[in-house]
Design brief:
Low-confidence stretches: none
CATH topology of one domain: Aldehyde Oxidoreductase, domain 3
Number of strands: 19
CATH architecture of one domain: Alpha-Beta Complex
Strand content: 15-25%
Bound molecules: zinc ion
Helix content: 25-40%
CATH class of one domain: Alpha Beta
Largest sheet: 7 strands, antiparallel
Mean pLDDT: 94
CATH superfamily of one domain: Quinolinate phosphoribosyl transferase, N-terminal domain
Length: 392
């Protein structure tokens, strides 16, 4: 097959063509000898361990395992847990039961789905926790291969982003894509005309956001555009790093000048290389909306898949914990406890009851129930973040 882009087709991924070759080689060797391999494999996080995980990417794992003779159990997407339980035992995020041959060669693809998506949804949730009610939008797809832009957008959205910039990503999550105006339109038409076109295009009820830093100083451009369009919703500052001496103070100054001239209704949106650690400061300075790009995609988790049981007998490699497991969480204090899979509930030291977070999604390859929509998963994230703030 001729590839125009350096990306795999869905058929190639399903067929295990994106797997590391050693699976293919050893499985072929194994099937030529007398080999019986009904196994349980679990997925745990090896790192980073200093942050909680908003688990996502499960939708794609389900797609790759569907119709294969396996059972799949997992923590639902949008659930936030630490990678280790309260005693330091690894948390099993996902468990597959079946003949090793039925799914072993898909390990690389499955881990890839989880590492990247969970990294993005977690980062997005960490932003949400800092910004609270303040809206932020994912502009992260331009730093990633276009083939995965819908995944980037979906993960950012379910992690807490208010919207995403990608057309296809937004379509797949059932939301309208979010965009303001590019610098290029100001370069092509000049500021005045570009602002006018942008405001007209937004229409009477659309959100009117204009980018003001293409040519002019932020303060004077803000005052000019505010006098031209007093009912603007947002001005956006995408100030280049070379002009940023102190971005927070720039925001303060623009806010002051707008307020002094009774433009309190015009809010300030900021974007451009923003990281988690910048946000609190910029919010306090007066930023009321954020566009987050590159940093959204830079923090993947290291998930791994390991056999923990063979033909009913606990067995795993050095450094891992053997036996099929559940992960219980206290409904009251959110404490986590990794337990053998024979244990489905328990009681916590705090007096609360502990319930199993792992749900079965596939029984012998057949889907159990309807899968949550991205919006429902995002709502789960919001509930989880609330209890995270309250209890941990
Ligand atoms: Zn408890």
């Amino acid at each position: 097959m001729v590839h125009k882009f350096n990306s795999a087709t869905e058929a190639e991924i399903l067929d295990g063509r994106t797997s590391d070759v050693y699976f293919e080689r050893s499985l072929n060797a194994a099937s030529s000898v007398d080999y019986e391999g009904k196994v349980v494999s679990e997925f745990t996080v090896s790192g980073p361990l200093d942050t909680w995980v908003n688990f996502s990417g499960l939708d794609e794992v389900i797609s790759i395992l569907k119709d294969k003779p396996v059972n799949l159990y997992a923590i639902p997407e949008g659930t936030i847990v630490n990678p280790r339980d309260s005693k330091g035992i690894p948390v099993p995020f996902m468990r597959i039961e079946g003949e090793y041959e039925a799914f072993g060669r898909l390990e690389t693809a499955m881990i890839g789905f989880l590492c990247q998506s969970s990294g993005i949804s977690t980062y997005s949730s960490r932003i949400r926790l800092i910004l609270k009610e303040t809206p932020f939008y994912s502009f992260g797809i331009r730093r990633m291969h276009p083939a995965i832009s819908p995944m980037v957008d979906r993960a950012a959205y379910i992690g807490g982003a208010n919207g995403v910039s990608g057309i296809l990503g937004a379509e797949l999550i059932g939301e309208q894509p979010v965009g303001t105006m590019p610098h290029s339109i100001a370069l092509l038409m000049g500021d005045d005309k570009a602002w006018q076109v942008t405001v007209e295009k937004a229409g009477k009820n659309g959100v009117k956001t204009v980018l003001i830093d293409t040519f002019m100083d932020e303060k004077f451009a803000a005052l000019k555009v505010a006098s031209m369009f007093p009912d603007l919703d947002y001005i956006r500052l995408d100030t280049p790093s070379s002009r940023r001496g102190n971005f927070a103070n720039l925001i303060r100054e623009v806010r002051w000048e707008l307020d002094l001239r009774s433009h309190q209704n015009i809010k300030i949106m900021v974007s451009g290389g923003l990281k988690l650690e910048d946000l609190q400061n910029l919010k306090e300075a007066g930023a009321q909306a954020f566009g987050i790009g590159t940093s959204m995609t830079l923090h993947p988790f290291d998930f791994s898949m390991d056999i923990v049981e063979i033909n009913g007998t606990p067995l795993t490699k050095r450094g891992k914990f053997s036996g099929s497991k559940n992960i219980l969480r206290c409904e009251r204090c959110m404490k986590l406890r990794t337990v053998p899979a024979s244990v489905a509930e328990g009681s916590c030291e705090c007096g609360g009851s502990m319930i199993n977070l792992l749900r079965q999604f596939l029984r012998n390859g057949k889907m159990l129930g309807n899968y949550d929509t991205p919006r429902q998963i995002r709502e789960r994230t919001m509930t989880e973040l609330e209890s995270l703030q309250a209890d941990r």
